[in-house]
Amino acid sequence: MTAKPSYEELERRIEELEKADNIRNKIEKELQESEEKFRLAFHTSPDSITLNRLEDGVYIDINDGFTKLMGYTRQDVVGKSSLALNIWANPEDRQRLVAGLKEHGIVENLEAEFTDKNGQNKTALMSARILRINDEDLILSITRDITDRKQAEEELSRERERLASIIEGTNVGTWEWNVQTGETIFNERWAEIIGYSLKEISPVSIDTWRKFTHPDDLKNSGELLQRHFSGELDYYECEARMRHKNGEWVWVLDRGKVAVWTEDGKPLHIMGTHQDITHRKQAEAEREKLQTQLNQAQKMESVGRLAGGVAHDFNNMLGVILGHTELALLQADENHDLHADLKEIQKAAKRSADTTKQLLAVSDNGCGMDKDTLDNLFEPFFTTKEVGKGTGLGLATLYGVVKQNSGFINVYSEPGQGSTFNIYMPRLAADEDIDKAVPEKKAAAGGTETILLVEDEPTILRMTRMMLERKSEDCFGYGKKTVTRSCPVKNQEKTTMAEARSLHRHADLLLEDTPTDSPDRAERNT
Predict the structure, then answer these.
(1) 470, 447 in Cβ contact below 8 A?
(2) What SS3 state is found at 362?
(3) Which of 359, 415, 428, 477 could form a disulfide with 484 if both were Cys (CB 3.0 to 4.6 A apart)?
(4) Positive or negative: CA dihedral 365, 369, 375, 381
């Protein structure tokens, strides 16, 4: 016989039942609240949320997000399977989803293609898990439309491929630099420009740039970067020398621009290109060298003409002095009071003529010349001799004379080895009568021949005509613009250019002392 519980025991059991009932009520309340929250989240989520049976994919419920994404209403899909509605663009994607759920109970971020009610394909990310409700396995899935994002990614990918092709086609290096951390990214071409593979110089940083760049150019690069960072320059652009693997210096054009700034306005991320411009710099240097040589040649030709002209005019004046002195000596014999004075004038003029000839003498003491001396060798008044020992006009005059006769000079000299001057002049074509025997020199005598005298210096013209007239020759004197004709029995007359050509055809002898490149001479010979 069972003993009756005591009053205290009954009271304790009643309290336990009341406590369990309170707990159950609380759980039910929490479940109701949870279900309400679930329903609220289910129906208000912008993402597509669905409940399907695991085995056959039949829809149990859908939210408005599914309707917006796929175009189907709740009446269209509930009770039908996703396969029957052809929602999966690739049915294999559902097989992957189900296999993952059965193995792990959850699948996250499965990317799949779906076909909406209008037949348009869309790309979405699906996350799902298995729920056990009323002894049945259901799939709770949340799907987010990423069609626009995928299109943007594909477009970005195509753009990257296009840019990569352009960069490869232009054969330039690329670089990215985090200014605040010093981290850098170089492409393979960046390393190839200085003779390395990217692997050989990895790991790379901003110190890699500093390591290979010429110190002078590195300083310039830093200044240009700061001007860009401060906003003074829209772009960073710098030409710099970098040490190649073979030890030589190569020239690069470094360009870039800050793409990202920090919140407080500091440069964060800068990207740019790296182009090999060595050949261009070499061509510029060669072009500059040639231009310098051309300028020097033009200058030397001008000063040579000037020096040659000065020497020519000086000789003309000396010729006038000597000529008139000789004419005067013919009238003043040794007994004449002026004879001694005329001889002194003649002696001084001859010494001056000898000095002029010495200007054309090329001499060297055997010690050779350095580069600076060679560069200034033909400059007028340039001399390495002591003051009073040289005029500095000798080689300048020589240069002018050679150039006026269409020749050129080559100079080879090394310090301690001496100097060699080679002068090249146009060869004179041999005359048919060149080999004929030269007649014996006869004493000058007067005759009846007609002589055409060509001289652009009036004083020389007059003096020479006077000498010829003393021999009673019929002489025609031709100046710069007019031809003067003088005969023993006729007064001097000025003759036009046309008449000069006529006189030229009737002359027995032509005497001429003008530069070979004179335009007057070319005109007279026509």
Answers:
(1) no
(2) coil
(3) 477
(4) negative
| Structural tokens at position 493 | 């007359």
> Residue 199: which residues within 8 A CB-CB, separation 6 or more?
none
For residue range 261-311, list pLDDT tens digits in order.
998 999 999 999 999 999 999 999 899 888 888 887 777 667 666 666 666
Task: Say what percent of the chain tops pLDDT 90.
Answer: 34
- Nearest alpha-carbon partner for 149 in 115, 122, 128, 116: 122
Residue 121 near residue 114 (C-beta atoms within 8 A): yes
pLDDT confidence tier of residue 460, bands split at 50, 70 and 90: confident
Question: What is the rounded radius of gyration, in angstroms, for the C-alpha atoms of the chain?
Answer: 54
Q: What end-to-end distance do the CA atoms of the chain give, in Å?
A: 166
pLDDT tens per residue, range 48-73: 988 898 888 899 888 999 999 999 99
Cα 24 to Cα 36: distance, rounded to the nearest angstrom = 18
Q: What is the pLDDT at residue 164?
A: 78
Please write the tens of the pLDDT for every residue from 311-332.
Answer: 677 777 888 888 888 888 888 8
Residues 149/155, Cβ–Cβ less than 8 Å: no
Which phi and psi angles does 105 have, rounded to 5°?
Answer: 80, -5
Residue 299: per-residue pLDDT: 73
| Residues 48, 68: Cα–Cα separation, whole Å | 8
State pLDDT tens for residues 378-414: 776 666 665 555 556 667 777 777 777 778 787 877 7
Mean pLDDT (the chain, rounded): 78
Is there a cis peptide before residue 203, judged by omega within 30 degrees of 0?
yes
CA 469 to chain centroid:
71
Residues 478 and 452 sit within 8 Å (Cβ to Cβ): yes
DSSP state for residue 361 in the 8-state scheme: -
- Cβ within 8 Å of residue 187, ≥6 positions away: 167, 173, 174, 175, 198
> Rounded to an integer, what distance in angstroms lies between the CA atom of residue 363 and that of residue 348?
25
Residue type present at position 305: R
Count of beta carbons in the 10 Å neighbourhood of residue 109: 9
Whether 309 and 214 have beta carbons less than 8 Å apart is answered as no
For residue 177, the SS3 value is strand
Under a CB-based contact definition with an 8 Å cutoff, are residues 128 and 141 in contact? yes
Give, as one character, the DSSP assignment of residue 384. Answer: S
Q: Which two tokens stand for residue 174?
A: 């690329």
HEC-encoded secondary structure of 13-69: HHHHHHHHHHHHHHHHHHHHHHHHHHHHHHHHCCCEEEEEECCCCEEEEECHHHHHH
Instruction: Name beta bridge partners: 216.
Output: none
